[in-house]
Amino acid sequence: MTGKTSRTTRNVLVGGAIASLLMATAEAAQEPIVFPSKGQSSKQVEKDKYSCYEWAKGQTGFDPMQVPTATTPPPEKKGGVVRGAAGGALAGVAIGAIAGDAGKGAAIGAASGGIIGGARKHRSEKAQEEWAQKEAAGYDQRRGTYNRAWGACMEGKGYTVK
User: Fold this and answer.
1) Is the Cβ–Cβ distance between 143 and 23 less than 8 Å?
2) Domains of the chain: which residue ranges?
3) Predicted TM-score of the model (pTM)
4) Which residues contact 19 (CB under 8 A, 6 or more apart)?
5) What is the chain's pLDDT, residue by residue, as a tens digit (162 residues)?
């Protein structure tokens, strides 16, 4: 697998995880309740809802009907115990060969590389989680702004919106 292919696969997997998180956030968002306080018919209510959807979308640049997507690329995934151990072992062999004991150098290198790789993986996973939370918070903010605009439009048309 080439570097480009594995990066693309990683981006698809991370993108899917973010889409799932954003979809869960979108589903959790409460839809406003609309009361036709001027006796509007159900047909008129639907017409006004759509009209306000179009207006609010134009005012805010947010479309709640679109599948949520990330606004920034995810941080690059780094580290791993196995990957770190392999790199450490290679470095250890080279250093051990110079010192006269390649086997011992490889063992020491693998152990230290594994520890370092594990620490990098932990930091990488934390960065991924923080990025996902930031993306979800941004979505919530954009959705809230849209909901306020939509509600203002509906109130302007004679509805009570809660």
Assistant:
1) no
2) 3-63+83-161
3) 0.59
4) 67, 68, 69, 70
5) 445 544 444 444 455 555 555 555 555 557 899 999 999 999 999 999 999 999 999 999 999 999 988 889 888 876 554 555 555 555 555 555 555 555 565 566 556 666 666 677 778 888 889 999 999 999 999 999 999 999 999 999 999 999
